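ESCALATION

Customer reports they have been waiting on this structure for their group meeting. Please prioritize. Original submission:
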Amino acid sequence: MIPMTNDLKSMQIILNLNTRLFANTLEGITEEHWNARVSDHNNPLKWIAAHVVSSRYLILTFLGKPAQNPYQELFANQRPYEATVVYPSLGDVKKEWEKVSALMKTALASPSSEALGMNAPFPLLIEDQTSFGAMAFFVEHESYEIGQLGFLKKYHTKEAMKYT
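Update from on-call: job pushed to the front of the queue and completed.
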């Protein structure tokens, strides 16, 4: 276990905020919204939300606390959205978000310095090629994807995502 550094503490603050914001982006979303695409070159809510959940499971591995990711195959090898694939329901994604978020909270309480210092399991588009660098990248990625969910929530429901 490593002491909580300012960098790790900052990521923890963002992840805790994202836990709430993700749930807020899905408030008022119907199954029709869940499945709709703004255009044929944009991802629907169901793809983005399940992708965020899957990515959060990946962050757990960087912390040295891997867990079973039920959506791993849906997004293996950076798999894009496919209209013929059956994606999880809105209710299933919400439940899985609660589960992975609880695991994240526990993992952040005792991160593994060994795991965070290891080389990332794949090349990164940033300088830091460690699992810590990968975690930083995926925390930013999660925030970006939640922004997309917030935009689509506003588009579909005419109501903005709340920060409360």
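Sent to customer with the following note: Residues 131-157 form the longest helix (27 residues).
Escalation resolved.
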